[in-house]
Structures are given as structure tokens and as C-alpha cells.
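for the writeup, i need someone to sanity check this before i put it in the appendix. the sequnce is what the collaborator sent (i think, or maybe the updated version? ugh). structure was predicted straight from it, no edits. if anything looks off just tell me and ill rerun, i have time this weekend
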Amino acid sequence: MKNKERHVVVKEFSRFQNYSFRMIFYQITFLLTILGTGYWLTSNIIKNMIQRGISSGFGFMIKESGFDISETIPLPLIEGRGLFIVILFLAYVLGFILVYWRAHSKGEKISPRANKVLIAAFFLIGVLGSLFYLMGDSIAWIGFSQVSSYSFAILTGVLNTLKLAFAGCITATIVGLMVGIGRLSPNWLLKRLSGIYVETFRNIPILLQILFWYFIVIGVLPSVRQSINFYDMFFLNNRGAYFPMVNPCEGFRPFMLVLVLTIISICFMGRYKKKKIELEGKEFKIFYPSLFIFAGLSLFSIMVFGTPISLSYPILKGFNFQGGLVLSPEFVAMFLGLVIYTSAYVAEIVRSGIQAISKGQIEAGLALGLKRGQLLRLVVLPQSLRVIIPPLTGQYLSLAKDTSLGVAVAYPELASVSGTIMAVSGQVVEVLALTMSVYLTISLLISLFMNWYNTQITMEER
């Protein structure tokens, strides 16, 4: 019996020495540990909530919030044909993401036929949307108020976060690109100023920069009645920046159709330009033809249908300005802090990407007679994108998550609105889970888009 038991132990030990068996065993053990920990945490949370008399679930999301949000974005309430077009467009976007995600996961490139189908579907939906818009289907714009639900409050916070993140990413990229190129400029003054910009703002914590802009710069601006006036059109005071607002007129819908047709023509001319360069090596300029098409169609639209837009200027009435477009001090402080801080890192990423290109490429471009601007646009930057894109993705993710610092200056982004909802409703666990899920979704979408773009750049490079 002892020999049989020893044989069984040796057999089991030899099985454990197998690599595949050990990998499966480790993974199952890790999975069971994660599930057990999650079950333990969940059961503890539910037990504590029951003891404190806190109700669970997301049923509270449809209740009235009972509080205001200082900065809201009106949402369109669309019915009939408009709702059908919106659903169709969202379905197209989802299908587009799935197709490119499947190709990216397999390391493949979209076939020309599938690419043409996607482009045709996009233009078809664009034409349907334009026709729907020209027909004038009714659209009601609704904003957040005290009688709105908690779910509308969360949506408002998400929109404020996306507005700040999108504007910040675009502006930080442009500023960082210019500063990064400036650091490599042969101009001594421009090079030194760019270096000072990077080393200064990159080494100051972002929260301190936001507080600096909010309290030191914006906080010392004059009051409303002593506003800084620029040509009676732009006003700046400690309540924000006021600009003229564009309002649509009778000719706005035809003008939008003209804009869509111009964009379509520019896309086709861009494809023609690319083929012209590949086949003949000649550069075909599309700026002036595009400008001529847009100007001609716009002039025709204005002559037939009337002026497309009008401007409403901010006017001082009582204790504040009425009309126009206003940027709140909280948004301006957050925007400046995020853009300046992130652009310093983007500048270093751009500089390293350009320096990764061998000098032989630059010398070859100069030998072919390319100007400095053409060399940078056609040779250096396209090749440096494969080095720039991966770290740039990390900066976009950081900027999107740093929008949660709006709590420090009372900017009503997602984290700030979620804190208010938790204080009013008492549903801490649900609101925190929903907030984390939204930030996770935003980060995954940014990563998905940037990884897809990086794959396209890499494949073109090969």
C-alpha cells in the first residue's frame, strides 16, 4: 500500500511539473481568488447598507434632483424623422467601430471594398440627415433644471467633462506641436522661449496651475460694470468672458447643405491629390479650389435663401450681461490649466519624435528641393507619428481624467456632479460605480481610437 501511495504522489507531482497544467492551475486559482474577494466585498457592502437602512439599486435615477447645475448644455429632443436619422447614424458609428476594432485585433487592414462601403454609407446618412434638416423637422432643446432627474444630472456632468476634454486635447495638441517644433528651431530666441515654456509648466503641479488661473488671474479681473471692453463686442470680467453668439436665420439650413457639399468635394479632391502624388510625384493644391467652391456655393445660397446667420452681442442689463456666448471662469481656469500643463508634455513628445527621424531623411528632402515647411509636413512629421502616437495617447488619457480636478474650482464636471448627487440622494455606492464606469468608458474609447490610428500609421509606414 505504501508503494502505491508513493506512486500516486510521484505521479501527481510530475503532473504539476507540466507547464500547461501549471498555467491552467495558476489561472483558475487567480480567478477564484478574484471572484471570492469580489463576493466578500459585495456581501460586506450590502450588509452594511442594510444595517444603516440605505436602499440599494438605481431606481433613484429617475427621481427629481432638486438642485441646479451652474453650467449646462441643452440637449435636443428629436421626434419622428429626426429620431430615425439619429438612430441610423449611431448604428453606423457603432458598426464602423466594430469593423475597425475587428481588423485592428487581427492586425489586418480594411479591404478597399469594405472601405468604400463604409464611406458610401456615411455619405448616404449625411445626405439623409441634410434632407431631414432642410425639411425643418421640429427639434426642442431642453436644459437641466431642479425638476430634472438624477440621470439627467449625470448626463450633464458627462457632457461638461467631454466638452472640456475634447477642447483640451485639441488645443494642447496644437500648442504642443508648435512648442515642440520651436524647441528644434534654429532661431535662438524661439528655441530658448520654447525650452522655458516646457521646463516651467511641466514641473508645476496641474492643480496649482488651475488654482493660479482661477484665483490669481481671473479672480482679480474687474467686476461686471467695469468689464474690459474690446470694441463693444468682447467683454472680460470676473464672471467670465463674453462673446457674440451666432444665431441661425432663414438661410441657415441651405447654407449647412452647402457646407456638407463642400466637405464632400474636398474629400474627393484629397483622394485625387493623393493618387496624383503617388502616380506622378506632383503636388496638387486643393486649398484654392476648395475655397472657390465654398465661396461660390455660399454666395449662391445667400442670394437665393438669404443670410444664414446673425450675431447677438452681449449687452449689460442690470447686474450682468444678457445675450451672447459666455465662458464661465471655472471653465476658463480648467481649460487653461489643462492645456498649458499637457501641452508642455506634448511638446517633448513631438520633439523626441522628430529627433527620432534620421538626418539622412532630412538631407534627402533638402536635396530634392523641398522647402523647410514642405520637408516638415511631407517627410518628417508623417514618419515621426509612429513614435509620437503611443505616448500622446497617454497624455490624452491623463487630460481626460484630470478633468475631475474641476471639483477644486466648482466646475460642474462628472466628479463634481456625482459628489452633489451622493450628498443629496445618499446613494454613494451606486453613484461611485456609475462614475467610475463612465471614466473607464471614456478612457477605453480614447485608447481604442488612438490604437486604431496608430495601426493605420504603422501599416502605411510599412
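The chain has 14 helices and ten strands. The first strand starts at residue 75 and ends at 78.
thx in advance!!
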